[in-house]
UniProtKB/TrEMBL annotation:
Keywords: Membrane, Transmembrane, Transmembrane helix. The keyword Membrane applies. The chain crosses the membrane at residues 12-29, 41-74, 100-118, 124-143, 164-185, 197-215, 243-266, 287-305. The keyword Membrane applies. It comes from the Bacteria. This is Permease. InterPro entries: DUF979 (IPR009323).
Length: 306
């Protein structure tokens, strides 16, 4: 079963890589693109890492990622010519499909959750659910494979370089934890938190999760570091229930997700897809709710974890 899961995950990564490589080819063929070579090289390199990263030496993977960073640094990755959308056809299709357009979204969640309860697990579940719901969406909308390819390219280019942030930030969290960043944070904060003060410990734990999630762009990456550095010595060691404190710390970190452009999937992606003039409009809208939820998390952890 483990080998089957590994093979399925590898298959999904190869599919993603092939989509990225297809975008690289499209960009390369567009002679009007202002940074044709740099942009096509970026998507080609990213596609190679996704599709063949496990089959080439890790050193080569690292060099490829550095090259991608250099291309981004010198602003060589830009959105190019996208497939034209016939507004009249799109409007007619929208009226014909109506609310059925939401069915694939709902089924995606149901399929993914359902498969996650099988030995295949959640990661494979998301991959299988994505393919199944894509087929269902094609049936509902009568979309052709070319339309799927065009829209995939459109989304990839609109999201741009921020699409790789989740992978890089997740890897950074593992590196930070292995490097002992949690211990450094614990030693540094011990001089500011009065010994035995549960409330200050809870505040530090929640705010630490929020701030570190804002830096990392990923609550999961921040959780291991902040829990090791703050949660265990200043909350759990003082009698806090690890289950309650840990669960609330994780969702407190998600408050930080609402406040940072580093959370590309949640904040940069909607701004890019909706072509917002202000790239931080989503964050500005979410900020008041995030502030309220941070206070709520502190109160809940203080009263429920002890």
């Amino acid at each position: 079963m483990e080998q089957l899961i590994t093979n399925l995950l590898e298959f999904f990564y190869i599919l993603i890589g092939l989509l990225l490589i297809a975008t690289a080819v499209r960009v390369f063929k567009d002679e009007t693109h202002p940074t044709r070579l740099g942009t096509s090289a970026f998507w080609l390199l990213l596609g190679i890492v996704f599709a063949f990263g496990n089959f080439i030496p890790f050193l080569i993977d690292g060099i490829i990622i550095i090259l991608m960073g250099v291309l981004t640094l010198f602003k060589q990755v830009r959105i190019g010519k996208l497939a034209d959308v016939d507004e009249e056809v799109a409007e007619a299709s929208a009226k014909r499909v109506g609310s059925w357009i939401f069915l694939p979204c709902i089924l995606l969640a149901l399929f993914a959750v359902g498969i996650s309860y099988t030995p295949l697990g959640g990661q494979v579940g998301i991959g299988i659910a994505s393919i199944l719901t894509l087929l269902i969406a094609m049936l509902i909308t009568s979309a052709k494979p070319k339309t799927v390819a065009d829209d995939a390219d459109r989304m990839i280019q609109q999201v741009g370089t921020s699409g790789i942030l989740p992978q890089l930030l997740a890897a950074l969290g593992v590196i930070f934890n292995a490097a002992g960043v949690g211990t450094v944070i614990s030693n540094g904060i011990s001089g500011f938190i009065p010994e035995g003060n549960r409330f200050i410990g809870v505040v530090a734990y929640c705010l630490g999760m929020v701030i570190f999630t804002m830096i990392m762009g990923n609550g999961f990456a921040a959780f291991t570091v902040i829990t090791a550095g703050i949660g265990v010595p200043f909350v759990i060691a003082q009698g806090g229930d690890p289950v309650v404190a840990g669960a609330l710390a994780m969702t407190a970190g998600f408050c930080g997700t609402l406040l940072t452009p580093m959370a590309a999937n949640f904040n940069a992606l909607p701004a890019a897809l909706l072509e917002m003039k202000d790239p931080n409009a989503v964050i500005k809208t979410q900020a008041p709710i995030a502030a309220i939820l941070i206070v709520v998390h502190i109160a809940l952890m203080y009263f429920l974890a002890f």
